[in-house]
Amino acid sequence: MILLLTVHHSRASDIERPDLLVSTPSVPLESYRDGFGNWCTRLVAPTGAFTVSTDGILRDAGLSDPVQTDAVQHPVEHLPAEVLSYLLPSRYCETELLGEFAWKNFSGPMSGWQRVQAVCDFVHNHVRFGYEHSRPTRTAAEAFRERVGVCRDFTHLAIALCRSLNIPTRYCTGYVSDVGQPPPYAPMDFAAWMEVYLGNQWWVFDPRNNDTRFGRVLIARGRDAADVPLTHSFGQHQLTDFAVWIDEAAEAGPSA
Q1: How far apart are CA 225 and CA 140, in angstroms?
Q2: Within its chain, how far is the Cα of 252 from the centroid?
Q3: Which is the most buried residue in 18, 130, 237, 239, by most CB within 10 A?
Q4: In angstroms, rounded to a whole number, what is the distance separating the alpha carbons of residues 149 and 129?
Q5: Can you give the pLDDT at residue 10?
Q6: pLDDT of residue 253 exceeding 60
């Protein structure tokens, strides 16, 4: 198996207690960087029940996802070469099937940040969220037609629309906390969102939640979910349980 469960290197300086991967029963673990710079763990799972877990503590500034509403969209000819791959169609993001709709609906006077936000508003309202609608093979075009899905489907559809509009967009996985959110709190989950390239840098957009979020923890980035699955198995397996938590730690008191 290949697991992408380790906090992204961009948050390395924030780690107070490393999120070490632990397996039960214990097996040898081999770690490596993939082509996108994500930290991956490779292992051979034994026959029978097998549990993998990770837990850590990260410092966080307590700020929301950054916003810059005047961030501009760059003409394709002015984009740096390293972001061009995020304009192309990928396994789950078929820009060739959604381009006509994208240009018809999002090519008016809006540009840059406003255009991306319009895409997120559309996807957020067009797709109905429900875990019962989860299907690992659903593509952006299928999410557009079926109008149901989970966070990865929202993200794939928004990515495909943004790429169709010549905006470099990449797929992200990680933890989205409920810190700063009003109760009742929804169950925690391993989530998907996207980053778009505007104004010479990458910005977070979350079409599933489409609101202000704090304490987002990045795990991996890629073109779509095919590049950064939570787990990739090279044999038959059955997921029997899955639990996610991200909690705000209590302030440490003065030492005795």
Answers
A1: 11
A2: 31
A3: 18
A4: 5
A5: 94
A6: no
Extract long-range pairs of 73-77: CB within 8 Å, 24+ residues apart: 73/111, 73/112, 73/115, 73/165, 73/166, 73/167, 73/198, 74/197, 74/198, 74/200, 75/166, 76/166
pLDDT of residue 209: 93
Which tokens go with 74? 């760059």
Structure tokens at 230: 């939570």
pLDDT above 60 for 255: no
What fold, for 76-230? Answer: C8orf32 fold (3.10.620)
Rounded to two decimals, the pTM is 0.93
DSSP label at 86? G
Q: How many CA atoms lie within 13 A of 149 on its CB side?
A: 30
Structure tokens at 253: 């008191």
Check if the beta carbon of residue 156 is closer than 8 Å to that of residue 162.
no
Pick from 155, 172, 160: nearest CA to 218: 172
Which tokens hold the place of 133?
């609608």
Residues of the chain with CATH 3.10.620.30: 76-230
Kindly give the interhelix angle for 151-164 and 95-106, rounded to the nearest 10 degrees: 70
